[in-house]
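TA notes, week 10

Several of you asked for a full example with nothing omitted. So below is the full record: structure tokens for the whole chain, then the designed sequence directly under it. When grading your own attempts, check the secondary structure regions first.
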């Protein structure tokens, strides 16, 4: 239902870069802030039940992150292919890629449903022997894994539209899910308005209900509304070349996105040997940091179609300026987050009704970890640039260094081998971010040099 020459798609090659980046990023940033809000609200409500309930949800969080990793990774590949094909004026291939994205969403959801049904108890048994935590964790895990297809389809629809320059509908999809979840959480957790008290199970049901509603709306818009992509029945027929193009960027992106949940699993394993309060603090940090990282990821969503389009169109001057603007804005966002975490860590922790032991652990944790935020911005923006220009493997290497290859070994070395406890785990964050930022610059430079003329190399 579309024309290839929509205003949203043409502006990526002509509008002033800074206002364009801001205009395209703000809807994604706003929707992701609301997404971060409902993640935090979810944990705040659960924390009112007990610290065991908060620990169960914290242990379940890597499962949700893994679902998000595969969905966002696939969506990144989809976005990269569609935006580049539109820039190259290859409309038909862009349409076919979009159709394949919907099929991939269904297939991925089916795989995760099977994993959830058969693997959830074994997963939680790795991290806890507490029967109460185990029961609540399994309740949460079964629901979010079984109904994950809704998130896969919603995110792929978002990426299809973002690739065309449309950032408003994806914002509406995310706002719909976030607001629905915020409303349903207390109703189902605490049994308001005649509903039974469901506790952690209620939180999971609220989450998937919100995701299903967003999925329905996103499919309606992608399949029925007018935009720069036209999906027909022929777009669903398997095309090996299109699939290869999607996963050339998408598979490394999936690996990259999967590193953070793997990191969290490893850190939870280290911290669980120290105390349950330390695991709860790690879960709280994961929710709080989303208020800082989500805006950065929203900025990346605005940058990616502009970068991909101008790379495909061979407009290197605009490509260079887009990268420069992305780095400046990204570092600014993370600097603001660092100031907040360092200034009022106690107030942030008090939102979650933490025990005195968890508060004592959490205050230095938030201050130490937040010192790494600006370095993380450099790695994340450069990684996004590599994805958008089709250099998925290089982007994956940056994320592997940043999220896994340094952080976990350093956390184990300082926390366990040198007996620094939780402090060693927190220190592993700034150490890994500094190393990965330096590595990101080195890995990205050859790509920049190969794309831009020598006179354009200075950023």
């Amino acid at each position: 239902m579309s024309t290839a020459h929509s205003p949203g798609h043409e502006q990526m090659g002509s509008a002033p870069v800074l206002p364009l980046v801001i205009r395209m990023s703000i809807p994604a940033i706003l929707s992701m802030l609301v997404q971060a809000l409902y993640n935090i609200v979810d944990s705040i409500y659960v924390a009112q039940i007990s610290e065991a309930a908060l620990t169960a949800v914290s242990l379940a969080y890597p499962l949700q992150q893994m679902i998000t990793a595969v969905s966002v990774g696939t969506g990144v590949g989809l976005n990269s292919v569609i935006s580049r094909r539109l820039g190259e004026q290859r409309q038909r291939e862009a349409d076919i890629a979009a159709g394949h994205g919907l099929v991939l969403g269904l297939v991925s959801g089916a795989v995760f449903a099977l994993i959830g049904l058969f693997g959830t108890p074994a997963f939680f048994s790795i991290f806890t022997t507490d029967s109460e935590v185990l029961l609540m964790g399994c309740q949460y895990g079964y629901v979010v894994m079984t109904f994950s297809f809704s998130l896969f389809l919603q995110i792929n629809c978002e990426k299809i539209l973002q690739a065309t320059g449309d950032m408003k509908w994806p914002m509406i999809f995310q706002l719909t899910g976030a607001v629905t979840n915020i409303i349903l959480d207390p109703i189902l957790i605490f049994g308001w308005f005649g509903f039974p008290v469901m506790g952690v199970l209620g939180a999971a049901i609220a989450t998937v209900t919100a995701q299903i509603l967003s999925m329905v709306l996103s499919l309606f818009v992608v399949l029925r509304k007018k935009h720069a992509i036209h999906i027909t029945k022929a777009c669903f027929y398997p095309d090996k070349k299109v699939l290869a193009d999607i996963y050339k960027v998408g598979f490394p992106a999936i690996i990259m996105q999967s590193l953070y949940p793997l990191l969290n699993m490893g850190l939870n394993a280290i911290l669980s040997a120290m105390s349950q309060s330390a695991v709860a603090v790690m879960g709280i940090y994961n929710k709080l940091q989303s208020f800082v990282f989500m805006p950065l990821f929203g900025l990346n969503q605005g940058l990616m179609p502009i970068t991909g389009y101008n790379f495909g169109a061979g407009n290197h001057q605009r490509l260079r300026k887009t990268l420069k603007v992305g780095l400046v804005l990204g570092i600014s966002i993370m600097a603001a987050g660092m100031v907040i975490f360092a200034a009022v860590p106690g107030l942030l922790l008090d939102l979650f009704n933490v025990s005195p032991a968890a508060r004592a652990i959490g205050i230095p944790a938030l201050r130490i970890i937040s010192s790494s935020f600006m370095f993380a911005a450099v790695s994340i923006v450069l990684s996004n640039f590599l994805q958008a220009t089709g250099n998925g493997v290089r982007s994956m290497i940056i994320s592997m260094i940043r999220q896994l290859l340094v952080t976990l070994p350093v956390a184990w070395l300082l926390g366990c081998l040198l007996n620094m406890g939780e402090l060693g785990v927190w220190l592993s964050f700034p150490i890994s971010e500094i190393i990965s930022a330096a590595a990101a610059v080195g890995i990205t430079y050859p790509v920049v040099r190969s794309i831009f003329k020598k006179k354009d190399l200075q950023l």
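Confidence is low (pLDDT under 50) at residues 1-7, 454-459. Use that as a sanity check on your answer.
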